[in-house]
């Protein structure tokens, strides 16, 4: 029986997914876990477990000695789409009070390097999202690293989207000074105000609305064994990994995965991935910069 067939109330479906999450990642679940997590009664927790067992009878069994439900060898999730990165993120944020599914259990230690977030002014972001939503032109004081001016310069922008390169948030919009769609770092906005309705149609930003299927392979300069390691690392199929990337993100994609070092570094381990369809990538990259 599939989840959609159960026609469940949202609260019940959340608890059934929680049961499955615990079974999959932690290897057990009991009534107390459900009670502690959702504050339901003992009869309700028992009913939830019975309902899950009815929906997926081959997924769990009750261990009387341990007094908990455990997954059976043929366990297959029906509510949960297991996400390893999401699970690791929950481990890192285990001390938060957010509604993660790991509260109240023993978990392995996990950590990550500090993320040096750039300061984003909430009022600036609010103005940008409002202008994007209502198709307005904003006048901003923007500090560009490429500008020779020591002070921010005034620009008129018609914003329409937001993107992250994994480190920094940008707003995508039409620059009325340069007559081109481009990205602006939100952290470099100082003053901002909406001044008029925009005549720019965001649908004409072809680099934003189109993607390139980027084909990645292990760097052929690596040894065969090293190439096998890289292929396994990224879950490649037949030594290839295909990723659809917005054309406006290609530069950031190139830099983040060190693909720009392929021809520069003498050590192929510094650039373990190469772009198989390099000519198509470079053509799209050049068109995005023009």
TrEMBL record:
Pfam families: BrxR_CTD, WHD_BrxR, WYL. It comes from the Bacteria. Residues 12-91 form the DNA-binding transcriptional repressor CapW winged helix-turn-helix domain. InterPro entries: CapW-like, CapW_CTD, CBASS_pafABC_assoc_protein, WHD_CapW, WYL_dom. Residues 212-280 form the DNA-binding transcriptional repressor CapW C-terminal dimerisation domain. Residues 123-193 form the WYL domain. PANTHER family: PROTEIN PAFB, PTHR34580. This is WYL domain-containing protein.
